[in-house]
Amino acid sequence: MTKVEIAEPYLGAWRAFLNAHATTIAEIDDALAAAGLPPLAWYDVLWPLHDAPGRRLRMGELAARVVTISRSGLTRLVDRVESAGLLRREACATDRRGTEIVLTDAGKAMLRRMWPVYAGVIESRFAAHLSEADAELLADVLSRVVLAPAE
Q1: What fold is seen in the domain 38-114?
Q2: Which residues touch 105 (CB under 8 Å, ≥6 apart)?
Q3: What is the C-alpha to C-alpha distance for residues 42 and 44, in angstroms, rounded to an integer?
Q4: Are 62 and 46 spatial neighbours (Cβ–Cβ below 8 Å)?
Q5: Which residues are CB-neighbours of 117 under 8 A, at least 6 positions away?
Q6: Element spanning 91, H or E
Q7: Alpha carbon 62 to chain centroid, angstroms
Q8: Distance of CA 27 to the CA centre of its chain
Q9: In which element (H, E) is residue 103 found?
Q10: Chain mean position to CA 36
Q11: Do residues 100 and 89 make contact, with C-beta atoms less than 8 angstroms apart?
């Protein structure tokens, strides 16, 4: 393995990004738990379904839209969320071998219950510490990182 040197401003920014992310996610999960709600990963599964046409996605499409859990853990998470009645699996109308994940009415209701708690932590832990210009700059910088081609 070759030794790679990363200049301190970049390494410091990386550490700050990781720490801010970990701290904020933990606080969101703590706030959801205190409100008697499921963890953020459940919201992360339910929201893309809510946002999708017909409130349904194939598992591969869902995996591409989920950000808080690995693809390998997604199937087990979907099983748990399905057991809670918040989504269901249905045969795909266009591919008899395929399965679609469908948001239930209970899932929509859960999203409505979770959002105010989630949004409250985003506001107090994140947004309250940024100006509008800071938020726009941060969104721009992080978007460039996400969209950069892998080397």
Answers
A1: Arc Repressor Mutant, subunit A (1.10.10)
A2: none
A3: 5
A4: no
A5: 28, 31, 32, 35, 37
A6: strand 87-91
A7: 11
A8: 14
A9: strand 99-103
A10: 19
A11: yes
Q: What share of the chain is helix, strand, coil (3-state, %, to 5)?
A: 70, 10, 25
Residue 94 has a pLDDT of 82
Q: How many residues does the chain have?
A: 151
Report the predicted TM-score, pTM, of the whole model to 2 decimal places: 0.89
Report pLDDT digits (tens) over 77-121: 999 999 999 999 999 888 778 889 999 999 999 999 999 999 999
Share of the chain above pLDDT 90, in %: 82
Tokens linked to 136: 């726009």
Residue type, 82: E
Closest C-alpha to 48, from 61, 36, 31, 33: 61
What are 69's two structure tokens?
């859990």
CA dist., res. 110 & res. 136, Å (int): 30
- In angstroms, rounded to a whole number, what is the distance separating the alpha carbons of residues 142 and 60? 24
- Amino acid letter, 109: A
Residue type, 135: A
